[in-house]
Each structure stands twice: as structure tokens, then as C-alpha cells.
Amino acid sequence: MASPRSANVVGSGPNGLAAAIVLAQAGLRVRLWEGQGTLGGGLRSGELTLPGFIHDLGSAVHPLAISSPFFCTLPLHAFGLRWIQPELPLAHPLDHDSALLFRSLDETADHLGPDGPLYRRLMEPLVEHWDDLMSEFLRPLLHVPEHPLLLARFGIRALPPVTLLARMFKTKRARALLGGLAAHSVLPLTSPGTTAFALMLGGAGHARGWPFPQGGAQALTDALVGYFRFLGGEVTLNTPVQHLRELPPADLTLLDVGPPALLELAQGRLPESYVQRLRRFRYGPGSFKVDYALSAPLPWTDPQVGRAGTVHLGGDLASLTRAEAAPHRGRLSGAPYVLLAQQSLADPSRAPAGGHTVWAYSHVPNATQQDALPQLEAQIERSAPGFQSLVLGRTVSSPATLQASNSNLVGGDVGGGANSLWQLLARPVLSAQPYRTPVGGVYLCSASTPPGGGVHGMAGYWAAQLALREFR
Q1: Running DSSP on this structure, what letter comes out for residue 217?
Q2: Fewer CB within 10 Å, N side or C side of the chain?
Q3: Architecture label for domain 83-205+284-405
């Protein structure tokens, strides 16, 4: 039977790079096309504020990358990747206390006091079977499971809203910890399925940690690109592709783009029924991101927070619930949920001697033009009073700024589309093979396909596997 000989991959985010590597491993001549001057999409780093301060332009902390069933098979350390594990994966300050997630499940359970036994029972099966769970979770929902009992057990616990799960816990610490984890879904915390995000991210913290690449997120991109080139892959930069006809002939074409870009790239070649289905795809809230160059570490009221790589700000579960509901109602929250990373505490290479970097963002209405900086900085100030006196420089990225830097971030949505239960199933359309497009040999491999957002490369992996299988 015939085998494909050549392929084009458009877009160099983690999914595009994963797809390109799979195709190159299969022996194809692969060319990667990138419209920007640097590779990586949402996985890039640069001096956004002052010289010597290295900030992550998109994602910063990567619990799913280190757990990725595909990335784990690649020799990325041979191409310079070094993971840094902060002392604590996560801290969540409260008014007079903090909820802490330790690498150790037992230590976290002990920290949660009377809620410890229940937390341990919830997380222990996930941690013990982490690799098997990742192989089931990071793929299309519509598949024949290899571990049906494990998946069923997880699904039963994961489907309810996190606000319902939290009722089982007695302490503010445990409820806030779960709420902060679930808020990564960018859904109202009363939505079904938000518990899945709390379980997956909490389990990841215990099973693999919440690490970041030494030197910045760009190091992960550079390692992937280095391996791709080692396999013979070729790269073309600064070349935006406006339509499929602009690409050279190839047996396969994989597109690391969202539905709006697919409609433009394949204009005139898609049946109207498919076009209408793509147009029903919805994006979630946007992000309002701020990068700081500081003269000293953040002055946390609770020194324990300074041990964590990632910090969730937003208070108790009730406050988090109000904050995450606001963007879905078209409003800025007066006290937003803020995700904050302080990588330079564990990675001094991120800043000049004595300096520090901080990466932070909050959820805002999609494509909003409102300024969310006062609310975001007020949340940091509540837990780290006086932090603004340490600011040497800041760079603000609104939803429009984020989309301008990466067209896949439509309206500032960093997840590639809303994470509603329907769109986890129909991503971007309801299909047993959602990567396949009606154009022969053309496949979609972005975060707008399963398993969705996050740095794991699995959308690219599964799309490339399908493309190879169907060609043959």
C-alpha cells in the first residue's frame, strides 16, 4: 500500500510541533510553516519588560507537559530541556491562612487536617494510576477505553460541579484549594465537569508536579524543534499562510489553527454543512495578563506562599465562584481569580542578580477592552502588601494583545475554545474523528480539537496518527 512521502504543518505551537514530529518519525519530508518570527505559538519566552528579565509570553507552568504520554517518549533532555520543580507546586492564600498543595499526597492530606482523609481517598487512585489515566484522558472522549473501570471511576467523580464536591469538605482550606484548581477550566464553578479539572490538576501535582522549563517556556519549544530538525524536518518562519493553495503540494497537511482560521485557509473548499458546524463553535472568556520585573520577591503575608511556583489568588470558594461567574456575564470581577507564577524563585536564570519575574493573569469577558489591571493588582496586594513598590517594569497584555500575538487566542481565550461539556465532546464538531476535515488529506490539530487546551501536544499526536492511518 502507498505511504505518504511529504507533509505540511501550519502553526508551530506544541500541537503543531507534536504533529510534525510524529510525521517526521514516520519518515515523511515535513515542512513546518510559522507566520511569526519565532516558533512556539503560546509556548514562547522573551524580555517583555527589562533587559535580562525572561518572561513567558503564553503558558508558564506545565503539569500536563511533563505528564504527556507523547512528550514522555521523546529525548527532549538531549536537546536542552531541564524541568525545574518548585518546592511547592501550589499555594492558595486565604485571609489568615493558606491552602498548600505539596508534591506528597500524604503531606497535603495532613495539611488539610480534618479533610485530609477524604482528600486522600479522592486523589490516591488517580496518583497510583496516573499514567493509565493520562492515556485515557488526553485523547478524544469518544473512544474505546483501555482502562474502562479506571475511566468510569474517574468520570463518576469528575462530572459534578466543584461547588457540589466542595460541600463534602469542612475546611476553607480544602474548599479553596479545590475551587482554585477547578477555576483553570475557565467555566463558572457551578458548571458540570469543573470537578474534573480539580482532580486532574491536583493529581498532576502529586504524581508529576507542576514544573516549568529552566530558562523559560521557550526551552520546551526549542527542545521540540531541535528534535524535529534532528529527524530531518524543515522550518519556514515569517510566512503567514492565508489559504491552502499557497502551500506546496504534499500528501498530508495538518493545521494547528482554530475554526475561524480553518474557515479562511480552506475557503471555497468546505461544504456548507461543515462551515455552519464550525461557526457554532464558541470561545470562552479571555485573559488579561501582566508580566512584572521586580526588585525583590513578592512580600507574601504568609511566607509559605513564597515556596510555591504557582499561586492562586481569589479567596475562599464563595469568592472564587463569584469571580469566575462574572466574565460569563460580560463583566469584570471586582475581586478576580488570579493565576500567578513566580518562576525566578526556583530558576535564577530568569532575572538579573537580585531581580525577579512574576507572571499573572485573570479571566475577563472575551475580547473585552476594559482595563482589568487595577483589580488584578489589588488581588496581589491583598496577599502581598507593598508589592507595587518592588515593580521595576510591567507589560500588560489585553485580550486583543494576546490575539494579535497568536491568532489562535480568539478574544484572548487561551484554551482554544470554551470547555463546556458539549464542546469537550464536539471539538470543534461532533465526530468520531474530529481532526479530519472534508478536504482530502487536510487535518486539524489545534487546541480546538481533543483533548483541548494545555501544553501536552496530544491533539497534534492524535491528528497525525489519524492522517498516517487514513492515507495508508
Answers
A1: T
A2: N
A3: Alpha-Beta Complex (3.90)
| Residues 258/403, Cβ–Cβ less than 8 Å | no
Q: Which residue has cell 479522592?
A: 122
Q: Is the peptide bond before 51 cis (omega within 30 degrees of 0)?
A: no
Within the chain, all domains assigned CATH 3.90.660 are found at 83-205+284-405
All 3 cell numbers of residue 78?
Answer: 538531549
Helices (H) and strands (E) in the chain, counts: 16, 16
Kind of pairing between the strands at 88-93 and 308-313: parallel
Find where cell 475546611 sits. Answer: 171
Residue 303: partners with Cβ closer than 8 Å, 6 or more residues away: none
CB 262 within 8 A of CB 393: no
For residue 283, which of 168, 199, 367 has the smallest C-alpha distance? Answer: 367
Cell numbers that stand for 315 in this block: 479567596
For residue 28, which of 250, 256, 255, 230 has the smallest C-alpha distance? 250
Task: Render each residue's pLDDT in the chain as its tens digit; 472 residues.
Answer: 566 799 999 999 999 999 999 999 999 999 999 999 999 999 999 999 999 999 999 999 999 999 999 999 999 999 999 999 999 999 999 998 999 999 999 999 999 999 999 999 999 999 999 999 999 999 988 888 888 888 888 888 899 999 999 999 999 999 999 999 999 999 999 999 999 999 999 999 999 999 999 999 999 999 999 999 999 999 999 999 999 999 999 999 999 999 999 999 999 999 999 999 999 999 999 999 999 999 999 999 999 999 999 999 999 999 999 999 999 999 999 999 999 999 999 999 999 999 999 999 999 999 999 999 999 999 999 999 999 999 999 999 999 999 999 999 999 999 999 999 999 889 999 998 999 999 999 999 999 999 999 999 999 999 999 999 999 7
Helix (H) or strand (E) holding 101: strand 98-101
Q: Are 44 and 21 in contact (CB under 8 A)?
A: no
DSSP 147-162: SHHHHHHHHHHHSS-H
**Cell numbers describing residue 277:** 458546524
Beta bridge partners of 88: 308
pTM, two decimal places:
0.96
CB 58 within 8 A of CB 43: yes
Is the distance from CB of 363 to CB of 324 less than 8 angstroms? yes
Give how far the C-alpha of residue 100 lies from the chain's centroid of Cα atoms, to the nearest Å.
21
